[in-house]
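Please annotate the following for my students:
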Amino acid sequence: MTDSRTAANPAFAQYCEAIFELQEDDVDVIQARIAERLGISRPAVSEMVRRLEAEELIRLERMDGGDAGSGQVRGRIELTPTGRALAESVVRRHRLAERMLTDVLGLSWSEAHVEASRWEQVISPAVERAINRLLNDPTTCPHGNPIPGSDYRPPDVVQLSELGPHQRFLVTRIPEELEFTPGLLEFLESASVTPGNCGGVSAVSPDGTMTIEVNGTYVGISRFAADRILVARSDTE
């Protein structure tokens, strides 16, 4: 369990959240990935990594014989149980906020994502419980990502890119990495490539770009997105 001083530090929470989400997407967590996710310079990330390690929020598997006192800290990063608890509390509030902002207030995916990043820092435990009751204990955010502490049960999924022409699918999850890709949330929502919608693969080009049909509309999906969108296989057309 995190102490009040650590939990109240927004920077600690932000970094632990980013590390949690990168791990959730099966990304090898190193400084460069954190810097990309947060839009922060690598030296600044290196300094924060030292602080997180000192606070026992992360463990660092050092590379090239480096140590915390020389140059940039290099190595794979993992959350400690304390760091994971902090991350899960922030991610839970963020995803509950996203769910309320879309389901109750009618905001778009992209609007909800931005607003939830603000809400996650100020939602109290009492408000968190109230939101959870209002939404009847949701298990995922609007993009299908699991809400920590919920009764989430992972479905049997594959990457969209694993499917071939004439195969049907049910969209189940848009991972966090795609939420941080500029313009992609708006595109996927406008194309109805959203959890719960069914579709089919119409064609796959040599470069991996896919043409899919969802709700009678045909749309192109880049290889980058197709490698990350998670779907459940459905009946063949």
